[in-house]
Specification:
The chain has two domains: 248 residues, 2-enoyl-CoA Hydratase, Chain A, domain 1 (Alpha-Beta Complex), CATH 3.90.226.10; 39 residues, no CATH class. Helix 2 packs across helix 12. It has 14 helices and 13 strands. The longest helix has 32 residues. It is globular and about 70 Å long. The relative contact order is 0.12. The protein is α/β, with parallel strands linked by helices and 363 residues long. It has a six-stranded mixed beta sheet with strand order 1-2-3-5-7-10, with helices on both faces. It has a four-stranded mixed beta sheet with strand order 4-6-8-9.
């Protein structure tokens, strides 16, 4: 047989790539068939992807496409807190901020990663084991299926931190939830709970992962399961606030996290995909993907150019603020920025320094 891989016997260093047996609903492996697991391995930084991780992810999806024994790709992250929170803001702030020519090269890699997911010759299941935020949300939406823990959260972050969600969210999100909800999420950057995400149609399924002292799975205690707020608006899946949130913290503190039921659901979906004609399955997936590809391929290159140039202005300030600001204040002073721009202030180094929040507690 011909080898169609770009690189032979590559040893992954920045991400984890594993071929795990396809298993039936009873947990019995199916001889000769596997699922191709692509796993972000940066849990200390919530599985945010570095430049090196992006390059390996491109290669991993290409290799998964070429693996004749693979039924599906499972795309996930290490740990219980995050699938992915987007690009690594430390790398952005310390290297790419102020270097648009370098960031444009980086965005070539990012675009190739998204395109690699959309063109993968295997169905791609996004196993969301925690936060899926920013660029993590965008690469997640490029996948074909999403199964999440019910403690996961979803959303964008760009306009809060000096960027625009043009790495896929402005192309994909409205296809899942409609223009109105897409506009809300992309601009306000308010997170959605897993319960809300599944109700809106963003994801396919959620699974409880918190176990109480009795060993029983319970739903995420931090979200409301009621249907309407005081004005009659639907609020199913909204995050609790105030006293209710404090009570939820007490409940969660007495729980343990168990991903076994979650992983069974992921494996169940992969097994269901195996019970189809492979070429008919792939053609169906490709036909559905066309809607996303239509928007992505039309916009991704011009978006890459704009995102690069933006590293000289708002992104330069926003990513540095996130990286250098104190934990409780990692955004620029938005009103001060607007007032400076209203006075036609140029984007000088002093202006950026003045916008970055600093820890004054020691003074």
């Amino acid at each position: 047989m011909k080898d169609h891989n770009l690189v032979e016997e590559y040893q992954y260093k920045e991400i984890i790539v594993e071929k795990r047996p396809l298993v039936d609903p009873s947990g019995k492996p199916v001889d000769g068939l596997c699922n191709y697991w692509i796993i972000f391995n940066n849990p200390k930084q919530f599985n945010s992807y570095t430049t090196k991780m992006v390059k390996e992810t491109i290669l991993a999806f290409r290799q998964a496409s070429c693996d004749r024994s693979a039924v599906a790709v499972i795309f996930t992250g290490v740990g219980e807190k995050a699938f992915c929170t987007g690009g690594n803001t430390k790398e952005y702030a310390e290297y790419y901020a102020g270097n648009p020519q370098e960031y444009k090269q980086y965005m070539r890699l990012f675009n190739d990663m998204v395109t690699g997911i959309l063109l993968c010759d295997k169905p791609v299941i996004n196993r969301v084991n925690g936060m899926r935020i920013g660029g993590g949300q965008e690469i997640g939406m490029a996948c074909d299926f999403t199964i999440a823990t019910d403690t996961a959260r979803f959303g964008q972050a760009g306009p809060k931190h000096g960027s625009a969600p043009d790495g896929g969210a402005t192309d994909f999100l409205h296809l899942y939830v409609g223009v109105g909800r897409s506009m809300e999420s992309n601009t306000l950057c308010e997170h959605w709970s897993a319960h809300k995400a599944v109700k809106l149609g963003l994801i396919n399924k959620i699974v409880p992962v918190l176990k109480n002292k009795a060993g029983e799975f319970i739903p995420n205690p931090f979200v409301t399961l009621s249907e309407n707020d005081e004005f009659g608006n639907p609020c199913f899946g909204d995050f609790l606030t105030g006293e209710a949130r404090e009570k939820a913290k007490q409940i969660a503190a007495e729980c343990t996290t168990d991903l076994s039921l979650f992983d069974k659901e992921v494996e169940k979906t992969a097994y269901a995909l195996s019970l189809t004609m492979p070429d008919c399955l792939n053609k169906t997936i490709e036909s559905v993907r066309k809607k996303k590809l239509e928007h992505w391929q039309k916009n991704c290159e011009t978006n890459r150019s704009w995102l690069a140039l933006n590293m000289m202005t708002e992104a330069r300030a926003g990513f540095r603020a996130f990286n250098e600001g104190p934990k409780d204040k990692r955004e620029v002073d938005f009103h001060k920025l607007r007032l400076l721009l209203a006075d036609a202030s140029p984007w000088t180094e002093k202006m950026i320094e003045d916008l970055i929040p600093r820890d004054t507690s020691a003074k």
